[in-house]
Automatic annotation (TrEMBL):
Catalytic activity, EC: 2.7.13.3
Organism expressing this protein natively: Candidatus Pantoea communis
Domain HAMP: residue ranges: 178-230
Keywords: ATP-binding, Cell inner membrane, Cell membrane, Kinase, Membrane, Nucleotide-binding, Phosphoprotein, Transferase, Transmembrane, Transmembrane helix, Two-component regulatory system
Membrane spanning stretches: 159-179
PROSITE patterns: HAMP, HIS_KIN
Name of the protein this chain belongs to: Sensor protein QseC
């Protein structure tokens, strides 16, 4: 069901409910007002009748007036008011000549009560009063139907303008809703015509304030989707570009093995080269997949407190045999024991890549030193270092300093930078005097 239809049904129900409540309230208040008015009128009329001289009263009826009014173009409701005067023993003295003749004597208490006229089933409201000397009783009555008709007519007179205006008000209200929903319809049409890879933000200028947060969220979604598509395209392009050379080398070594029929040395060397190429391709694929995963934004939900001192200690212990084989010295100076909120595996990968680079590119006999402070980690080596131009390019994807003999893909520092960015870590590369490279991680 459309929003407009739901609003239309809601408005109809709401206006109907409010109209019903207002009508009942108006009728109830009008009824109370009419009853109060006519009760007061009955009381004043009864008192006026009691003020007459009882000695001058004798059984009589006033003349009928309806015919007189009719002949003089007047009108009278014989249920509006009727009266009769009785002696204390029930003897009638005077009545209005109409309904008063049918009023039956009642010697009970004074006040208002319900009653009926002689030979009439309609309900009347009767007021009985007794004179001060207890010699006469006066009754003034009014038919309830007259009051109910008066209440209905007055209530309808006050509600009729609203009853006529409600349909027009409802139509105007629905037209206003239809007009105000046009921006949503334009937005829907714009989204339907939008290309899947279109990351252009939607215009928020002409939209209502209530819709702008939705459009802002959509723009954020488009931006994230564009980044995701860009990462996937870059991953595919990088994989296709970087795997071309290793796969070509593997194919060459496979052809060499096929051609080396009886040359065992050539076959063995080709197998070694093939194994080395497979390892290099495997490492490249692993690094590409790791880089693609690190660039995703959903890893923040896996963050947890990570003690950095034990992480570095375990890392250096794992690499100690490799460092000893290369005659390198690994040192850890823990001046504090900070705990970082992050991803344990990615933080371990960050430190591992930095240590692997130091072990791979520093010459034998070098010293690699980790210094852990409350807000920083410093990794230093006293190797040959890099030039200023090469220092500025560290971290570029698939870039490696020229003249390197070690195998690699140029993705290690890129992975480090992406993990650091994910954790809000600032990374800086600098020279060590007299020679070497320093990596400073701060947060």
């Amino acid at each position: 069901m459309s929003l407009f239809l739901r609003l239309a049904i809601g408005f109809v129900l709401l206006i109907t409910l409010c109209g019903g409540v207002a009508s009942y309230s108006a009728w109830h208040q009008t009824r109370d007002t009419v009853n109060e008015l006519f009760d007061t009128q009955q009381m004043l009329f009864a008192k006026r009748l009691l003020s007459l001289d009882p000695t001058s009263l004798h059984a009589a009826s006033l003349p009928k007036t309806k015919s007189i009014l009719r002949h003089h173009r007047g009108d009278q409701d014989d249920d509006a008011l009727a009266f009769a005067i009785f002696r204390a023993d029930g003897q009638p003295l005077l009545n209005d000549g109409e309904n008063g003749r049918d009023m039956q004597f009642d010697d009970k208490r004074d006040g208002f009560r319900e009653g009926r006229l002689r030979g009439d089933d309609d309900s009347w409201r009767l007021l009985w009063l007794t004179s001060a000397d207890k010699q006469y009783r006066v009754v003034v009555g009014q038919e309830w139907e007259y009051r109910d008709d008066m209440t209905r007519d007055l209530a309808l007179a006050s509600l009729m303008p609203w009853l006529y205006a409600m349909p027009f008000m409802l139509l105007m209200l629905l037209a206003l809703v239809w007009f105000e929903l046009r921006p949503l319809k334009r937005l829907t049409a714009s989204l339907q015509l939008r290309a899947p890879d279109d990351a252009t933000p939607l215009d928020e200028a002409r939209l209502p304030i209530e819709v702008q947060p939705l459009v802002a969220a959509l723009n954020g979604l488009f931006h994230r989707m564009a980044q995701l598509v860009q990462r996937e395209r870059r991953f595919t392009s990088d994989a296709a570009h970087e795997l071309r050379s290793p796969l070509a080398a593997l194919r060459v070594q496979s052809e060499v093995i096929q051609l080396a029929d009886d040359d065992e040395a050539m076959r063995k060397r080709a197998l070694q080269q093939l194994d080395s190429g497979i390892q290099r391709a495997t490492r490249l694929v692993d690094q590409l997949l790791t880089l693609s995963r690190v660039e995703a934004d959903d890893l923040r939900s896996e963050f947890q407190p990570v003690p950095l001192a034990p992480l570095l200690q375990k890392l250096l212990i794992e690499h100690f045999p490799q460092a000893e084989a290369q005659q390198m010295d690994l040192q850890l100076h823990a001046q504090a024991e900070p705990v970082m909120n992050g991803h344990p595996l990615l933080l371990n990968l960050l430190m591992r890549n930095l240590l692997d680079n130091a072990l791979r590119y520093a010459p034998p006999g070098s010293q690699i030193q980790f210094t852990l402070n409350a807000r920083t980690i410093i990794i230093e080596d006293n190797g040959s270092g890099v030039s200023d131009e090469q220092l500025a390019r560290l971290g570029e994807r698939f870039w490696r300093p020229p003249g390197q003999t070690q195998t690699g893909s140029g993705l290690g520092i890129s992975i480090v930078k992406n993990i650091a960015q994910l954790h809000g870590i600032r990374i800086a590369f600098s020279h060590v005097q007299p020679q070497g490279l320093r990596v400073t991680l701060s947060w």
